[in-house]
Amino acid sequence: MDLTNCSRVEKFILLGFPHVWGINVSFFAVVFLLYMLSIAGNGLIIIIVRINSQLQKPMYFFLSNLSFLEIWYTTAVVPKMLANLLLVKTTICFYCCMAQLYFHFLFGVTEFFILTVMSFDRYLAICNPLRYSTIMTFGVCLQLALAAWLGGFFSILFQIIMVLRLPFCGSNTINHFYCDIGPLLNIAGGDTHWIEAFNFLIAVAVIVTSLLLTVISYIFIISTILRIPSSSGQKKAFSTCASHLTVVSILYGAVLFVYLRPSATNSSFRHNKAISVLNTVVTPVLNPFIYTIRNNEVKAALWKLFQRKALTLSNE
């Protein structure tokens, strides 16, 4: 095929899931419910951190950033996924597909950086408690959050530019429920090996580096906790980072399976879809519950908010 003068496709067909009406409707209901729970749960965390003076701490500032990311990370994918479950053929325009790809990776990569910053925050709080308040000032927190967002912005920008330059002249069917890099490269014309190599290098730089920094932080954290003489002190110290460690384990486990492979086009898209559902639908729902159930300060703030709301309703 002559790729120099080809007419680029104007829209893609998202293959999504096999269409079995009864199963699809049930799956639609489950995904929609989880999506609403994710929006409500993460939105509630942002609200209580914003209005509660006792939560005006670096840890909760970064937690509200994480919740904000989760809302938009899942919103970039789930609405189109829901449409795919009900419609026989779901289409997405070319530039809409590129935008979805960009924002999905922007929020995802930024989430890795925010989680890394959160592990650094926990390291300072547990290993250097006397200097914590002087180091983690509000200005430093803003700078770290901004650095995480800028890191996400630039890490995916060049990949999107390279994908935009590829000729899409043949098949326009994407074997996924959203525009992911692997299925897109699979239908692109021309040589995509150099883009795959660059994508793999970015994945290594972002995922492995952030994971390594997180692991190093927790090595110091755990070694410090084990030196605390009382078991109650150890339990209290570990409870402040247990939620973060749980979220990190879930997120990195899923993402390492999908993206950290040299070839994106030869991977099993059926398995990728299942892991992507976990990443984009299930994990954003779990995060608010994990941080709420295992964090006494957040639970207390939620209880005060509900009491205030109940009192307001009873006075009306």
TrEMBL record:
Domain G-protein coupled receptors family 1 profile stretches: 41-291
Coiled-coil regions listed in the entry: none
InterPro entries in the cross-refs: GPCR_Rhodpsn (IPR000276), GPCR_Rhodpsn_7TM (IPR017452), Olfact_rcpt (IPR000725), Olfact_rcpt_6C-like (IPR047132)
Gene3D superfamilies registered for this protein in UniProt: Rhodopsin 7-helix transmembrane proteins (1.20.1070.10)
Membrane topology: Multi-pass membrane protein
Keyword annotations of the record: Cell membrane, G-protein coupled receptor, Membrane, Olfaction, Receptor, Sensory transduction, Transducer, Transmembrane, Transmembrane helix
Keyword match Aminoacyl-tRNA synthetase: no
Cellular component per GO, a single term: plasma membrane
Transmembrane segments: 20-48, 60-81, 101-120, 132-158, 200-226, 238-260
Record flagged with keyword Membrane: yes
GO terms of molecular function: G protein-coupled receptor activity; olfactory receptor activity
Pfam families on file: 7tm_4 (PF13853)
Compartment(s) where it occurs, according to its Swiss-Prot or TrEMBL record: Cell membrane
Family: Belongs to the G-protein coupled receptor 1 family.
Protein name as it appears in the record: Olfactory receptor
Organism expressing this protein natively: Eublepharis macularius
UniProt gene name: LOC129339856
